[in-house]
Structure formats: structure tokens, C-alpha cells
Amino acid sequence: MNKQKIVVLSGAGVSAESGLSTFRDNGGLWCNIDPMKVASIQGWLQNPRLVLDFYNERRAQLETAQPNKAHKIIAELEKNYDVAVITQNVDNLHERAGSTRVLHLHGELTKVRPENSYTEQDNFSESKIIDIGYKKIHYGDEDKTGVQLRPHIVFFGEAVPNIETAARLVELSDILIIIGTSMQVYPAASLYSFTKPTTPIYVIDPKEVAIKDPRFIHIKQKASDGMETLITVNGF
Length: 236
Ligand code: OAD
Fold this sequence. Notes:
The chain is an alpha/beta fold. It has helices spanning 29-32, 35-38, 41-46, 48-64, 69-76, 93-97, 163-172, 223-233; strands at 5-10, 82-87, 102-104, 107-114, 130-131, 149-153, 175-179, 201-204, 216-219. The strands form 2 sheets. Strands 3-2-1-7-8-9 form a 6-stranded parallel β-sheet, with helices on both faces. Helix 6 links the parallel strand 2 (82-87) and strand 3. The structure holds 2'-O-acetyl adenosine-5-diphosphoribose. 2'-O-acetyl adenosine-5-diphosphoribose (OAD) binds next to loops. 2'-O-acetyl adenosine-5-diphosphoribose (OAD) binds at residues 11-13, 16-17, 22-25, 28, 35, 39, 88, 106, 154, 180-182, 184-185, 205-207, 209, 222-223.
């Protein structure tokens, strides 16, 4: 028998219990620094050193962070379900917890690419992406062709190349789990609308999220407890 398809759409809250800051909570990253300075294409063009430092610091934090119980429960769902994780997170904690199918919407901290890596179709040129692990990148670091390296991060003001693949996954899902995202950033926030009308949509977040939809089944708990509730109460 074919396994049911679960799609997990995750945001920064799923990694909060691993010690990585969210963006918009009290004390979150965007409370202390203007996202337009470090996470937008304009910011990159104005002050690439500042942007590189911001991501160097986050990469260093990631090196010592560990996947938490929520990441692990999500990975274990693969025993009984056909699972795809669509994450807005640039960390690699889903992969390190054992999830085998992870689609990053906003890029990955452990990768970089040259400044000329967008194609005319607003897509990344996959062959130009370089895995750097947890190393720092400095202004002046270039690829083999002499082009400045930039973080493999989708900046505000840039297209989200993986969004169509993500929409197709959501369309085919039998169960959608939205976890740890304030649902304020588009197009990711609108992905849920691609579900079939019969697909249950679970939202795991200790707070209200920006979108209200009568189909949302809100489990108002932190990521680990919320995933535990989901598998025990719903028998996943
Ligand atoms: P936000 O910071 O906007 O939202 C984090 C969500 O996690 C909030 O709804 C919190 O209530 C929730 N949360 C906090 N602690 C939690 C916990 N322990 N367990 C579960 N949930 C918890 O982060 P995102 O929605 O992921 O993009 O932000 C989306 C995008 O905005 C990011 O990918 C990033 C940012 O700008 C880029 O940088 C391109």
C-alpha cells in the first residue's frame, strides 16, 4: 500500500529549542538588526562585509547546535509515511536529525555561490553552489572564475527558486504540518493554500500565527511538545 504523504513546512521556531534565535519573537534576530542591512539584495550591494559577517556568525552558531526532539520526531515520521520537509530555515538541523528529503526555500548556511549565480529564469545555477561546511567567507573570497562569493541565502528582493517544487509537494500532500513559523513571509506563507480541501493542516506554534484559516488545527505548544502531542494524540 502506498504510504500517506506528509509535508512539514518549518520555520525558525522548530530550531529555537536547539538554541538558534527566531527572527520576529521578542529578542529575535530582527529585533537587534535591520533585516534590510543583512538579508536583502540592497544590503548585500551596499555592505557585503556586514552581510558576510552576519552569516559567518550564524554558521559558527550552527556548528555547535544540535537537532532537538522536534527535528527527530519529524525525521522518524519517515518510518511510516512518505515525508517531505519544506523549510524556511537555513540551518541543517532537519538533515542532521535524519530527514532525507529536505527542500530549503531560503537557502543554506553551509553553502555559498558566486554573485553571478542567478540564471535569467531567476533560478540558481546548481553547479555554482559550493559546500563550505562551517568555514567563514570574507570579502575578496572568489570562486575559480574570480567572482566574489556570497552566502547561498535567498535575500529579500530575490526570487525563491524552490517555491514551485514546494507548491507541488503541498498539492500532493495528505497531511500538512506547519511548525514554528509566524507565517509573515511570502511566498512561503501562502503554500498551505495549495492543499487539497480534505488535507488536515496542523499548526504547531506556542503563539498565534499571522494567518487565520478555519482549517488550521492549532497545537499551541513549543515544537518538541507539539510534535509529541501530534504523534500521541493523533496516532501518527
Ligand atoms: P519568525 O521569527 O517570523 O517566526 C518564528 C515563529 O516560531 C513564531 O511564530 C514563534 O511563535 C514560533 N516559536 C518560537 N519559539 C518556538 C518554539 N520553541 N517552538 C515552536 N515555535 C516557536 O520566523 P519564520 O517564520 O521562520 O528569511 O521567518 C520566516 C523567514 O523570515 C525566515 O526564513 C527568514 C526571515 O527573514 C530570510 O532570511 C530569507
